[in-house]
Structure formats: C-alpha cells, structure tokens
Amino acid sequence: MTGLLLLSLLPALASARFGVAGGRVDVTPDFDYAPVAFAVQAINDKFLRDGDTAPRQLAEIVSAQSQVVAGQKLYLTLRLTGAELDDYCKVDVWFRAWLNNTDRLIITSGPTCSKTRSRRELLGGISNPNYLKNSLDKEVFDALNFAVCAINDASNDLFFSKLGDTSGVTYTQQVTSGMTYRFYKVPLLTSSCRKQANSCQETDLSTCEVSDNARTTVCTLTVQSQPWLTPAYTLSENNCKKMRFPNKGM
C-alpha cells in the first residue's frame, strides 16, 4: 500500500522539482547527479567505440535543461577534458528514478561531440550557472583567486581576507574579448595574516587562519580573463556586502 502511494505521488514530486510537465526549464545539476554521470559514461563509451581510448573527465556543465516526461528528460551540453583539445558534447538522458533496471537511465539523443563551443557561445552567450564545487577548470579558480587578491590589495584593512566556505558559490562564463567570469555569493573572512610588504599574490592565503570574530563579507565578482595581456586578469566588478553574523571558513 505504501509503495502504491509513493508511486502515485511521483508525478507531483517531479513537477515540484523539475517544472510543469511538457515544458523545459533551465537547471543546475551537480556533477554526480545520476543522469549527468550516465551521460559522461556514454560519451566515454562513444569515444572508445571510435578507437579513442583517452578517458574524458567532466569539466563543465555548459547548459542543462529539464523536462518532465514520465520521469525527467535532461538536455545536456557538457565540456570534457582529457584529450589534447576539450570536447563539447550534447546528449539527452531520460531518467526514471523509480525503476531499478536498465530502463532507469536511457540515452535518447547523442552523444554528439565537437572540439569547439556552439555558435551561440562564440557570439557571447552566457553559460548557465555552475557550482564552483563541481568545477575542475583551473582557469576558473585562477580567476577567482585573482579577484580575492585584487580586493585585498585595494583595501585598507590591516589583515588579509580569505575565501570562506565556497560550497554555495556559483559562477557563469561568457566569451567576450577573452572570457568573462561572474562569481556569486563569494564569502570572504578576515584572517589572522597581517599585511606586510608582500602583496596578496605573494601570500599563500590557505595558510592563514580565520581570525576570532572574523568579519564576513559576501561578494558578487566579475573577472575578465585575457591571457595575452599582463596581467591576464582584471577585476571589473566588485559588489560586496557585510553579513550580520560571522560565517566560519574552511
């Protein structure tokens, strides 16, 4: 009886999480979400069938849309690393969470892969938000660390600020003259490291402890990356607000 009740509630639960049946909505799935992991495996299987044995790793969910169709259908565009050039792959996955057999996850289209971004992205389209915790892209972290140091070097504080818990940080990226990264909900906490003659770029903030009664600031940051320039990064937006309650760092 309980099982039948749960089955009867599944459509309502799916609609609440993934949107109205039939319509597509933008979503931000985690890297370890079952349909995403299944899509990555399908992409690796495709390359293996084609004689390419280099394993690919998911670096970015470029875009993701969800549609409620007797379960969930995910329309994914993924960027994968592992080959000489990154692969951009489109794949659609049908997910029926209540099944326990091979029909639980089915590829309905793709994977189709290329070595370049889509025309929309090349023309400046903004990617869907991604969680920083899911990113394996060194460029993303370099851009964020530059922004943190730019804030430190521009402030009159006696102590450096460092990144707090970044599990809630999201970011987008956009092809402009280079690449523009926008980071949201970036927590900065006052550390115990006093500013000396060295700049922030010359200081390893990971070794700095969060000070007692640390002041917490949450920022929206925009960083322009142009690798052919020196410096390669520019902090073009810095919108920070102090929080009322401290937020313990990592």
Task: Describe the secondary-structure layout.
Blueprint: H1 2-18, E1 24-26, H2 34-49, E2 57-68, E3 72-81, E4 87-95, E5 105-114, H3 119-122, E6 130-131, H4 138-154, E7 159-163, E8 170-176, E9 178-194, E10 216-225, E11 233-242
Antiparallel strand pairs: 1-2, 2-3, 3-4, 4-5, 6-8, 7-9, 8-9, 9-10, 10-11
Give a structural overview.
The chain has 250 residues and is of the alpha+beta class. Helices cover 22% and strands 38% of the residues. The chain has helices at residues 2-18, 34-49, 119-122, 138-154; strands at 24-26, 57-68, 72-81, 87-95, 105-114, 130-131, 159-163, 170-176, 178-194, 216-225, 233-242. The strands form two sheets. Strands 6, 7, 8, 9, 10 and 11 form a six-stranded antiparallel sheet that branches. The chain has a five-stranded antiparallel sheet with strand order 1-2-3-4-5. The radius of gyration is 21 Å and the shape is elongated. It starts with a helix and ends in an 8-residue tail after the last strand.
